[in-house]
Write a structure and sequence with these properties.
The complex is a heterodimer. Chain A is of the alpha/beta class. Chain A contains 18 helices and twelve strands. In chain B, helix 1 links the parallel strand 1 and strand 2. Classes of the chains: A alpha/beta, B alpha/beta.
Chain lengths: ~425, ~325
């Protein structure tokens, strides 16, 4: 079989939503066998928010969001709140390298499935727990979404237009970032186990992994005790540095430009046909340019408004000036660079449609073991047989029995995320 | 908390060479070092440009004047590394870099596209020197039509799709605070490095890993990209105007939760002084919360060229007279 870096690693994945599933998607991309465990009563909310798919038959298997986040994984229905489900889960733990959880399955908060219990099933097991605040401390139990972690970590307080208050990212930024951290953490624990033979309980607090991405602000605050002013799109030591309006259709586009040196500024002026600006004392060096940014921004906007973002970026880059269109999702999907790199892959899905749709590929490009979308996201309970018959060695009758008891199944209770 | 024994850290025993500037590759190198790897950072003779970006501590004038050993950005991004200076655009400098590559498991770099190739330091060339080398290249775009484009954090944030979604709908798109495009690329590079290290034991030969900041962002646009792929609808792809209350830096630092978990840590530095740094983005523990280890260590950034003798003399075995000669020639 084609080998990938994590080939042979089996991960039981109890996470739902975005952070945990993004972590396990990266692990699956790298070749781990990820078994996503849901149950009829407790299934991944991203199967549902897709408004169109809810009206379709088995819409829970057709959600675009779920199907992108859960590619390269297997799916199994197993109710951990049922005593028999718990037994089977612990048998799976003994056969697996790691378990990932994010409190989506309440059963994991029960002492019946603590880290110590998992360790009895497999002494060197690795448990990855993702939470908003961490396992201990006064706010440990508080539930927080990925969007909110940005405000709690302080990132939102340093983001914003200078004339308005704090702002947050346009995505629930801490979810994917803590997901990448969790994937890295699991790999670190596997490396540790390979050397020492010992397992670990790995803990990712979203609020903390978020704060780690803005360390200079905290070190700076401890130096000077000052909240820095909101800079909008400007930079402390580069000027000009901004986002400029461009020509249409269907609506105005935007171009980001950042000038890091006098030579780049001279090149920008040349491209705009305004070489006199480079000789102007007001813009002679970065300090004077910083002081006179409003005038500069006005001159640059006058030029960009006559160009599309793509044209403007091209001529500026030819002159060595850092510039990029502010890309929308539509732009990205048509982007010539991503197209030539083969970033988007064509995938079909058992129930969402055999028509090939494009999906973002793997953001880590490994020369010897390139990773691709190998498996489409699992339909609910799609790999029950693999798990119960092949891995656990149950008979067909025993599996039918589990279905009758509601321990497993092929259909979620749709009222749960109604 | 007493520091953990080095061998209790998860990346103990791995050696890394970082040829990184600014944020992306240095953040990857920092995480590798904080979790136990032995990381040697190569800086140009005038230092990593991050040393010239602030914030800096206020001096008597209250101006916070630039000082190469006092940049909060550099201090944070280079903890626990050894620091050497080396001009590898010279022939003897490139030779020394190749010697260092022989000694390490991982090379992390974010040099301007094409620079290492021009100096005969491409992965293909370095793999001859060290066949087990994992080379991690963190780039704004990666190889391809934009491969040679100039980029900063701002233009990277614009190219990956996140800037389009950030800001008020009636205003220009907005940059998220700090260097988020570059941090994301560095975090991805760190995770990719660890995955590739796991694969190395199976593969027995090294490989080249390229991480594109543009692609890292395009993977995490919430449900916007999936929605467009499924039904060509970008109805949700508008900027968010939600301005929320947010903890200030001071409030985040003082938060009882963060304090109870001792997330923020004081770190002393011989020139910059004793300041507060963020702690680990994840913890590896032996069980329930305790004073036991996190698999992580606090530490400080190196002074410019602090470990030249230790690395070029101790590790590579150069004589003191060689070092004097290299210094006089402007190589180290």
């Amino acid at each position: 079989m084609y080998r990938l870096p994590l080939s042979g690693i089996r991960v039981l994945d109890l996470t739902m939503g975005w952070a945990g599933p993004y972590a396990s998607r990266l692990l699956g991309d790298m070749g781990a066998e990820v078994i996503k465990i849901e149950s009829a009563k407790n299934w991944d909310v991203t199967r549902s928010p897709d408004l169109r798919s809810q009206d379709e038959e088995k819409g829970y298997n057709r959600s675009s969001h779920f199907n992108h986040l859960n590619r390269n994984k297997l799916g199994c229905a197993l109710d951990l709140s049922h005593p028999r489900g718990r037994e089977l889960f612990l048998e799976l733990v003994a056969l697996s390298d790691a378990v990932m959880e994010d409190h989506s399955d309440d059963a994991m908060d029960d002492p019946g499935l603590s880290y110590d219990v998992l360790r009895q099933a497999r002494p060197d097991t690795i448990l990855v727990t993702i939470s908003a605040h961490g396992k201990d401390g006064s706010e440990a139990g508080h539930v927080v979404g990925g969007a909110h972690a940005e405000q709690l970590a302080g990132l939102a307080s340093v983001t914003g237009y200078p004339d308005r208050g704090p702002h947050k990212s346009g995505i629930s930024y801490s979810d994917p970032e803590s997901g990448i951290s969790a994937a890295a953490a699991l790999c670190a624990a596997l490396l540790y186990r390979r050397r020492t033979g010992r397992g670990r309980w790995v803990e990712v607090a979203q609020r903390e992994s978020m704060a780690s991405l803005m360390g200079e602000f905290f070190v700076g605050f401890s130096m000077n005790g000052r909240q820095p002013p909101l800079l909008g799109n400007r930079h402390r030591s580069m000027a000009p540095h901004g986002c400029y309006p461009c020509a249409g259709p269907p609506e105005a586009g935007w171009l980001a430009i950042a000038v890091a040196s006098d030579a780049e500024f001279a090149a920008l002026c040349r491209v705009m046909g305004r070489s006199e600006l480079a000789a102007d004392a007001r813009f002679a060096d970065v300090v004077s340019r910083y002081r006179h940014q409003d005038e500069l921004d006005e001159a640059i906007s006058a030029w960009t408004q006559g160009k599309t973002p793509g044209e403007a970026a091209m001529v500026l880059q030819e002159a060595g000036v850092a510039a990029s269109p502010v890309a929308s999702v539509v732009d990205l999907m048509e982007d010539p660079h991503l197209r030539e790199r083969g970033f988007f892959e064509k995938t079909a899905h058992l129930e969402a449609g055999v028509r090939l749709r494009r999906m973002e590929g793997v953001p880590w490009r490994l020369s010897l073991t390139p990773a691709h979308v190998r498996l489409s996201a699992p339909c609910f309970g799609e790999h029950n047989d693999y798990v119960f018959r092949h891995l656990l060695g149950l008979s067909a009758e025993e599996v039918a029995d589990l279905e009758r008891q509601g321990v497993t199944g092929h259909e979620p209770d749709e009222a749960v995320h109604g | 908390m007493t520091p953990e024994a080095a061998e209790d850290l998860p990346l103990f025993g791995f050696t890394v060479l970082e040829v990184g500037e600014g944020v992306s590759a240095p953040y990857c190198g920092k995480l590798l070092a904080d979790y136990g790897a032995d990381v040697i950072k190569v800086e140009p003779l005038e230092g990593d440009p991050a040393r010239r970006h602030g914030p800096f501590p206020d001096d008597a004038t209250g101006a916070g004047l630039p000082h190469p050993e006092k940049s909060a950005l550099f201090l944070y991004l280079n903890t626990n590394k050894k620091g050497v200076t080396l001009d590898f655009s010279t022939a003897s400098g490139a030779r020394l870099l190749r010697r260092l590559v022989e000694e390490v498991d991982v090379l992390v770099e974010n040099q301007p596209p094409g620079r290492l190739e021009e100096l005969a330091l491409s992965y293909q060339k370095l793999a001859h020197v060290n066949p087990r080398l994992l080379m991690i290249s963190v780039k704004p775009f990666g190889e391809g039509p934009y491969g040679r484009w100039n980029a900063t954090n701002l233009t990277s944030f614009a190219s990956g799709g996140q800037m389009y979604l950030t800001g008020d709908p009636d205003r220009e798109p907005l940059l998220t605070g700090g260097y988020q495009a570059e941090y994301q690329a560095g975090l991805n590079a760190f995770a990719a490095t660890l995955a590739a290290l796991l694969g190395l034991a199976v593969m027995e030969v090294g490989q080249h890993v390229e991480v594109s900041a543009m692609e890292c962002q395009a993977c995490v646009l919430e449900n916007r990209l999936p929605d467009y792929a499924y039904r060509r609808s970008d109805a949700l792809s508008r900027r968010h105007g939600n301005v929320n209350s947010a903890l200030t830096l001071e409030e985040a630092l003082a938060s009882p939760q963060m304090r109870a978990r001792r997330y923020f840590q004081e770190v002393d530095h011989p020139v910059a002084g004793r300041w507060v740094y963020p702690g680990p983005p994840f913890r590896l523990t032996d069980g329930p919360p305790s004073d036991g280890g996190w698999g992580w260590r606090a530490g400080r950034a190196p002074l410019l060229g602090e470990h030249n003798e230790k690395v070029f003399g101790g590790l590579l075995g150069l004589e003191r007279s060689d070092l004097v000669r290299l210094r006089a020639a402007g190589v180290i």
